[in-house]
Amino acid sequence: MSTTSTAQDASNGGGNGRQPHARARRVLMFPLPFQGHINPMLQLADVLHGPGLAVTILHYTGFRNTLDPALRPEFGFVAVPDGVPADVVASGNVVSMIVAMNTAMEASVAFRDVLAGERMPRAACLFVDSSLFGAQKAAEELGLPTIALRTGSAACFNCILAYPMLHQNGYLPPEGSQLDMPVKELPPLRVRDLFLSSRADHDMLSKFLAKATHAARSYSALVLNTFEALETDELEKIRDEIGIAMVLATGPLHRLSSKTEGTAGRSSNVLPHEDHTCIEWLDTQITGSVLYVSVGSLACMDSGELSEVAWGLANSGQPFLWVVRQDLVPGSDGPCLPKGFDDMVTGRGRVTPWAPQQEVLAHRAVGGFWTHNGWNSTLESVAKGCPMICRPQFADQMMNARYVDAVWGIGFELEGELERNKIGEAILKLMKGSEGEAMRKRAGELKKTVASCFESGGSSLLAINELIDHVSSL
Ligand code: UDP
User: Fold this and answer.
1) End-to-end CA separation in angstroms for the chain
2) Does residue 49 carry a catalytic annotation?
């Protein structure tokens, strides 16, 4: 099967070459309420819905990224009580919020009641974001098998599995002087590429990751949004360690989901609509000339950094498309670009609040991606063969950037303070320099590898078929 027909078939109801049949079985799917987690879960929902499974999405309603059921009428939606204290939500601390969600699910009967109500009729299993391991316990009590979706890389999961070792061997919590030290047990990572935590929330993170690891050993299957050729050793390590029969690399999942709004881009009612006029603007630009700049849905910068990025882009002389979210600069009334910037970049620069990222990355005019290295953005860039300037901020972004640079050779990290001259040099290195050219070549080769994963006999297609067979057998 050709790649194109695979992707189309998935959305038309025949993904993976299977014919849709009456929706005899239903699966429940429970994403973590953050954009980078909602997107792959909905993409997986598309993959399962295609060949004939009915899908009911369980979702929280009290968070920033509240799902909008109107965007996906083909799925059922059931609201779940979150039980997260208002002060924890207000703190914006993502780990605290996730810990509170799990604690609430483990302790309260409310979630179990929802699950029990949805258990019948015909629910085959619960797909759960691997960070919502509290759901697994409740499902187990009801005799409902749980399949976890990991929305990050395999390398990231290995890092989670290794967390106790990282403590025992003195890498964590990190000392300032240790940050560049290689973690010899997890090459090519350095201490600063790990999930870092301040001493203050160190215990909380350790306990959280220990529970996530414990739960991983009880799942009926573990699905990862990555592909075999990209993370061969990392996947093998997971299979060796967690001891469950089915560890499936089905990614990049966005390749099998033709929807953009409601899956890959805006899936909640708080993010702006995708600005499709930027595609018309890209149509006017020279092939391979445009740098696409985006830091995803959560990462932020202060007003000084915003100004340095603006002048770095302006002074580079390179065309660019820059996603400047309304909440990009916290504590402000909205991001304020420096005076004179607009005039300097007329015709060559475009600023938008939210772009159709996959379409942008696939556009012939785009030749590079300045990214925060959220895993979805990283995978989307890999799938489109686009080399990267990496500017990671937190969570798994540092290790994703490290792999882009040191393993796949398709980008480099922009380190240290954001400063306009340094930014300009990095842009020219990627877009015009010979090193950038070599990265672009390697990215092009990786793009072909991604395509082959979805051709007949391709690893991701096989994994998806195995998953569907598994669900049908439950
Ligand atoms: N995205 C988008 N338009 C934008 C910026 C981001 O559609 O202007 C999408 C992007 O394609 C990706 C997701 O938002 O699928 C961001 O996920 P990622 O894991 O990269 O980062 P996070 O937002 O979780 O930090």
Assistant:
1) 28
2) no
Contact by Cβ (8 Å): 218, 202: no
pLDDT at 410 over 70: yes
Residue identifier of the C-alpha nearest atom 6 of ligand 1: 296
Q: Is residue 374 lining ligand 1, measured as CB closer than 6 Å?
A: yes
Q: What is the CATH number of domain 3-267+454-473?
A: 3.40.50.2000
In CATH, what is the architecture of 277-450? 3-Layer(aba) Sandwich (3.40)
Domain ranges of the chain: 3-267+454-473, 277-450
Pairing of strands 366-371, 26-30: unpaired
> Tens of pLDDT along 422-453?
999 999 999 999 999 999 999 999 999 999 99
Decide which of 448 and 67 is more confident.
448
Q: Are 127 and 206 in contact (CB under 8 A)?
A: no
37 classed as catalytic: yes
Residue nearest to atom 9 of ligand 1 (CA): 265
pTM given for the model: 0.91
Residue 121 has a pLDDT of 67
Output the pLDDT for position 7.
33
**Spatial separation of the C-alpha atoms in residues 197 and 398, rounded to whole Å:** 13
Gap from CA of 225 to ligand 1 centroid (Å): 15
